Amino acid sequence: MLSLDKEGESFVIEIKGSEDANVYFIVKCIRKKEESVITPTIKDVAKAANVSVCTVSRVIHNLEGYSHNTKLNVLQALEELGYYPNGVARGLINKQTRTLGVLFPSVASDFFCGILHGIEKAAYDKDYMVIVCNTGEDGKRTKNCLEMLQEKQVDGVIFTSEVLKDEYYLQLRQKKTPLVLVNAYSSKYTIPFVKVDDKLAAYQATSYLINKGHYNIAMIAGTPSDMIAGIPRVEGYRQALEEQGFIFNEARIAYGDFHMESGRVAMEKLLSEAPPFTAVFAASDEMAIGAMGKAFEKGLKIPEDLSMIGYDDLMLSKIISPPLTTVHQSLDQMGRLAVEKLLSMIEKPLELPNSTLMNHYIVERETVRTII
User: Fold this and answer.
1) CA distance 324 to 317
2) What are phi and psi of 148, to 5 degrees?
3) At 86, phi and psi to the nearest 5?
4) Beta carbons of 183 and 158 less than 8 angstroms apart
5) Residue 278: closest CA among 213, 204, 366
């Protein structure tokens, strides 16, 4: 007689009576069934392809050191055994890993968090994962980040708020990696971008202050060498003053780095060194909020003593006291549009999507007073 008991996930066979061929057959079937649910390992793939484990690993990570036929054998073994340790192995079969790489100069800023929120939501909706890289100030780690993303075989890259150097472009071009720029653009290469017209937005912010009766307007600008947002916003500020017949005075500009602490430092400089002014245009909300804090420390009231307008419309600008008047740009939508363009390039490599200049507008709150 034969009885079968299940303990956990294994079968225990108790044979009573004489052994015969039928019993042996049943045992063989149960063992085969158990073996079929075991997940294949990289060693199984190596054995099936008649290569070393090291060679399988090199093929999976797209490294060199094997022939084309060897690669085909390994890919066939991967597919037949169903060995997919991660998205990279699947990507070797279907040419996609369903991952996108995103490069940010900083991941601590509310500005970049807003863009990232839109990117992640749009990617998730399309069943894509996102790998985020912090390139550091001045792109200190950009090259290494790009190399890492290419080793991960991401399907495309979103490059944010940084100048696209020739070496970065060529590095991506060599691997035919689709690329979209956010809050950036390239005058040299034809690459889709998503951004606001920074010069126009700065022009309108300054004109808004002029229309409120402010003629002596200072500016807290971004990084002086920043061609993406720093320089265009200064140009817009200058154009608005000159078109209204006011003298552009370099002494009324203090430079920061778009972050809050630099706004405090810039305001300290303006208050101690600049000619008198009644209003300040800050090239980012974070700098505007930092500047407001310094003004409060100096005993100034906003907007009674000093008016302030920012740029970005971050969540923080709505909850500070008084709430900050600012230039709105939809960071979440910028991220979403960037993903849409990138996925379009992945799915249709021969069709280049159009770039998008985002809408912007001034949000009036409580930091600008009208001078009669």
Assistant:
1) 5
2) -65, -45
3) -165, -175
4) no
5) 213
Three-class secondary structure of residue 63 per DSSP: coil
Greatest Cα-to-Cα distance within the chain, rounded to the nearest angstrom: 111
Average of per-residue pLDDT values in the chain: 87
CA distance 203 to 239: 7
| Residue 17 in tokens | 């009576």
What is the DSSP annotation of 265-315? HHHHHHHHHSPP-SEEEESSHHHHHHHHHHHHHTT--TTTT-EEEEEE--H
Angle of helix 110-125 versus helix 331-347 axis, rounded to 10: 40
pLDDT tens digits, one per residue of 249-275: 999 999 999 999 999 999 999 999 999
Asked if 336 and 308 touch (Cβ cutoff 8 Å), the reply is no
Res 36 pLDDT > 60? no
List, for residues 343-356, the tens digit of each pLDDT value.
Answer: 999 999 999 999 99
Question: Which pLDDT does position 28 carry in this prediction?
Answer: 40
Q: Give pLDDT tens digits for 206-226.
A: 999 999 999 999 999 999 999
H helices present in the chain, as ranges: 21-36, 42-49, 53-60, 68-81, 87-94, 110-125, 142-151, 166-174, 198-211, 230-243, 260-273, 285-297, 315-319, 331-347
